[in-house]
Specification:
Layout lengths: L2 E3 L1 H11 L12 H11 L1 E3 L12 H7 L4 H9 L6 E4 L3 E4 L1 H4 L3 H5 L1 H4 L2 H9 L1 H14 L4 H8 L16 H11 L3 E6 L5 E5 H4 L2 H4 L6 H16 L1 E3 H7 L4 H13 L4 E5 L8 E3 L10 E4 L10 H8 L20 E7 L1 E11 L4 E9 L7 H15 L4 E7 L3 H15 L2
Parallel strand pairs: 1-8, 13-14
Antiparallel strand pairs: 2-4, 3-4, 5-6, 7-9, 8-9, 10-11, 11-12, 12-13
Helix pairs in contact: 8-11, 9-11, 14-15, 14-16, 15-16, 18-19
Length: 412
């Protein structure tokens, strides 16, 4: 018989597995950053920079203010503690995890999208030219490759989004196929492509590639440790696995005693859930702003199950139809998501702008005060001098007052 646990216990286990039951360190060093990488397994990358690059935020949420150079060093300098690949979406993973995604790389011709897949058939010679140039010249951006290999090519402007050249498509195909990796990013957030064997630590490159079933099973293990308690769809979503191999891996891990089936009271449809053995479920006293790409909340069904709130991205929703705003961060207080704020870093004026602030139903009276403190910490971390609240949202008036009080108390 599966053990039955309360929804509150499942939430605490999820928060603990994600690192929110730990106190933030007084001083953050490389070891703290590395522990977050190891705990999460995957850190999603996104190009939206209205506040800051999203991959920096999960570390701030768990560690508080830290030097982002620590993260850059972990990803961009040898021996790397993180490397890029299509894991959840575009993501950082530990170097050792890269080989567990080899089956996805082998399917680049089928699983890559649109022109990224087609370029291999349309211009196979270009892929060879890109590989040869990278092998001979080392880390290079697609823009620099374009100048070297196709200086006369005119970039299309038909698409409002990514108007990629053939050279860029070739780079991305080779990246998907695992032949190229990212040695780092430049100030414009462009990948600097290099041969994968030069990016991965030598000890990792020397390891054998597991077969597909073993690789998927290991990815589910990583997901289960990172999630604490989760349904199979949530375990699957962490690395965007296919349903059949994910279900098979979960069944095998249950049979081996590496996953514990549990029933969570109150979860929708009482779907089967699975607990990573030894996952603690302590009382949690967290305070954190969460990027919408944080692994705690990126699977929307799970966020609804765990916290009882609906989170959605509204980047691509017309402004007049947005409910909460453009770049909205849920606010975690204690064990609950109690509010959400639409944030923007006005770097020219050195101001953190709260475009909208909303309270969740049942948010405690201290929500505005605690949120004000967290916003001041974030502003300082982003080298901004002030926090300014626009009038939109039911929490905005109380937050404005709380920020003034915090300013007087702390002398920000």
């Amino acid at each position: 018989m599966s053990e039955e646990i309360s929804a509150r216990t499942a939430r605490r286990a999820a928060l603990a597995a994600q690192g929110f039951s730990r106190r933030r360190p007084a001083t953050v060093g490389a070891a703290h950053v590395n522990r977050v990488v190891d705990r999460l397994g995957v850190v999603q990358i996104d190009s939206v920079n209205v506040l800051c690059r999203s991959h920096y935020l999960p570390f701030f949420s768990r560690l508080g203010p830290y030097d982002t150079a620590l993260l850059d060093r972990a990803a961009h300098r040898s021996p790397r503690r993180m490397v890029e690949y299509w894991a959840h979406e575009a993501s950082f993973v530990a170097p050792g995890t890269h080989r567990f995604l080899r089956w996805r790389m082998d399917r680049a011709a089928h699983d890559a999208w649109g022109s990224i897949a087609r370029i291999a058939d349309e211009r196979p010679e270009l892929l060879d030219q890109v590989l040869a140039h990278v092998a001979g010249h080392g880390p290079v951006t697609a823009r620099a490759l374009e100048a070297a290999l196709a200086p006369d090519q005119v970039r299309s402007k038909d698409n409002w989004g990514w108007n990629w050249s053939d050279v860029k498509r070739a780079c991305e195909h080779l990246f998907f196929a695992g032949e190229l990796s990212a040695a780092g990013r430049n100030s414009a957030f462009e990948r600097r492509y290099d041969l994968t064997e030069r990016v991965l630590p030598p000890a990792v490159s020397a390891l054998p590639v597991p077969d597909d079933a073993d690789a998927v099973r290991e990815l589910v293990r990583i997901s289960a440790r990172a999630l604490g308690v989760a349904t199979e769809p949530s375990l699957r979503d962490y690395f965007r696995l296919r349903a059949a191999p994910s279900r098979q891996a979960v069944a095998e891990l249950v049979e081996a005693g590496e996953l514990e089936p549990v029933r969570v009271r109150g979860w929708a449809q009482r779907r089967p859930a699975y607990r990573w053995p030894g996952t603690p479920a302590p009382r949690v006293d967290a305070r954190a702003l969460l990027t919408p790409f944080d692994p705690l909340i990126w699977h929307r069904d799970r966020t609804q199950e765990i916290f009882g709130v609906t989170v959605r991205l509204e980047f691509y929703v017309p402004k007049e139809k947005r409910v909460h705003g453009y770049y909205v961060l849920p606010f975690l207080l204690g064990e609950d998501i109690v509010g959400r704020v639409d944030l923007k870093a006005d770097r020219e004026r050195r101001v953190l702008r709260v475009e909208a602030a909303w309270a969740e139903p049942g948010a405690p009276p201290r929500t505005a005060e605690e949120l004000a403190q967290e916003l001041w910490e974030m502003a300082g971390w982003l080298a901004l001098d002030d926090v300014v609240v626009a009038g939109r949202g039911d929490l905005a008036p109380a937050l404005t007052v709380a920020l003034r009080v915090a300013l007087r108390r702390t002398g920000h």
